[in-house]
Amino acid sequence: MIKIENLCKKYGDLSVLENVSTEIHKGDVVSIIGPSGCGKSTFMRCLNLMEQPTSGKILIDGQDILADGADVCKLRQKMGMVFQSFNLFSHLMIIENIMLGPVNLLKKDKQEAYDEGMKLLEMVGLTNKAFAYPDELSGGQKQRIAIARTLAMHPDIVLFDEPTSALDPTMVSEVLAVIRKLANDGMTMMIVTHEMNFAKNVSNRIFYMDEKGIYEDGTPEQIFDNPQKPKTKEFIYKIRTCNYEITDKRFDLYEFNSEIESFLKKQLFSDKRINNVLLVCEEIIFNLLFNNLGKDFSPIEFTLKYSEKNDETIIEFRNDKINKNILKSSDEVAMSIIQKYTQNLNVEANTITLKI
Ligand code: ADP
Ligand code: MG
Fold first, then answer.
1. What pLDDT is attached to residue 14?
2. Which end of the chain is flanked by fewer CB atoms within 10 Å, N or C?
3. How far apart are CA 143 and CA 129, in angstroms?
4. Nearest CA to ligand 1 atom 13
5. What pLDDT, on a 0 to 100 scale, did the predictor assign at position 288?
6. pLDDT of residue 294
7. In angstroms, what is the span from residue 29 Cα to ligand 1's centroid?
């Protein structure tokens, strides 16, 4: 239905999208997720030509909408768009807001546009607001009206750009319910959203956007339960990382401890849990420094990764002299401390990994 080939978008020198290629099929419900600023809105705005792409092709039913002489207006009507802010005309009644496009652009007669508008209001559960003005409605209601208004243009696909992020939390579900109904009715949609559970339930495809394009795509199960690429994993598992490099044998333990502590405090660790992490780190570091790397020091790279989703802490020590036997010569007290607080200790060439 829509084929996107090597789509690029630059704002001046800033390259936002680079060679994005994908296909959207009829009936697809694609949720787009990814960090803020990665180009999700830009991608959607390029699709319906609210932004002029720098290069590439967008084919709708085989027609390139970027080609010279393409009927942009008509093609744009095939793509409805629903924004974060509802953009209703405040001086027009709700039903007039909905009739405006069909009457002015599709040249429908007023009665027909009215009848259809009333049906759409029924679909979004707001028939009783037909003669109200936008200011009399809540945010959730306004967004449902904005959806009805978009549908009145009979689009082939509806693009939603964070449709619930301007809403009071209590109103999110009424809007999601309407979108879910559209999905069940077979509407083709692309939805930029931060509502991960919703995205997982409503979509058949997920695009994770990063690094100027669609970084990873797959089914909701693939992306949410088994992401493959590093940045997708970080995003999905909400992994926060703290790095420290021990560059000297007489390194500053106090500084090290206080950096870890302030990082873990941000992740809402209890004092007891922080102490356990520090204790284990200290034992490992002293073991490395004094038993094994003493003579011929080379820097130790320390990484702590905390996954908010799994509430899991992974610690890595990297050094080119680490080998499988490195902890064998530790004293018993040190080993018992390490073992008491770690669930998983793995020693390989160059790396010690442990889970706390
Ligand atoms: P997202 O929707 O994923 O948060 P956007 O598509 O809004 O990201 O923005 C992607 C990048 O493009 C950002 O760095 C943003 O600052 C930049 N950008 C977006 N719109 C414009 C614009 N009209 N002019 C210049 N830069 C822009
Ligand atoms: Mg955006």
1. 97
2. N
3. 13
4. 37
5. 85
6. 59
7. 24
Compute the chain's Rg from CA coordinates.
27
Ligand nearest to the CA of 83: 2
Distance in Å, CA 44 to ligand 2 centroid? 9
Residue matched to tokens 């319906």: 48
* Protein residue closest via CA to atom 20 of ligand 1: 42
What residue has token string 């009399």? Answer: 136
* pLDDT for position 59: 92
Counting ligands in written order, which one lies closest to the CA of residue 45?
1
84 C-alpha to ligand 2 centroid (Å): 9
- 8 A C-beta contact, residue 125 and residue 144: yes
**What is the distance, to the nearest Å, from the Cα of residue 82 to the centroid of all Cα atoms in its chain?**
18
- The pLDDT value recorded for residue 106 is 93
Q: Which residues of the chain have pLDDT under 70?
A: 291-294
pLDDT at position 293 is 60
Paired residues of 64 in beta bridges: 59
Place of tokens 């950096």: 259
Distance CA 92, CA 196 (A): 35
- For residue 158, give the nearest of 289, 48, 246 by alpha carbon: 48
* pLDDT at residue 116 in the model: 98
Whole-number Å distance, alpha carbon 39 to ligand 2 midpoint, is 7
Q: How far is CA 244 from CA 6, 17, 204, 206, 260, in A?
A: 39, 33, 41, 34, 9
**Are the C-beta atoms of residues 147 and 178 closer than 8 Å to each other?**
yes
Distance CA 90, CA 97 (A): 9
Residues 21 and 231: their CA atoms lie apart, in Å, by 19
Residues with CB under 6 A from ligand 1: 11, 14, 16, 36-42
Q: Which ranges constitute the DSSP H helices of the chain?
A: 40-47, 72-77, 94-104, 110-123, 139-151, 172-184, 196-202, 220, 230-236, 253-266, 271-286, 332-341
Question: How far is residue 117's CA from residue 126's CA, in Å, rounded to a whole number?
Answer: 11
Query: In this predicted structure, what is the pLDDT of residue 330?
Result: 73
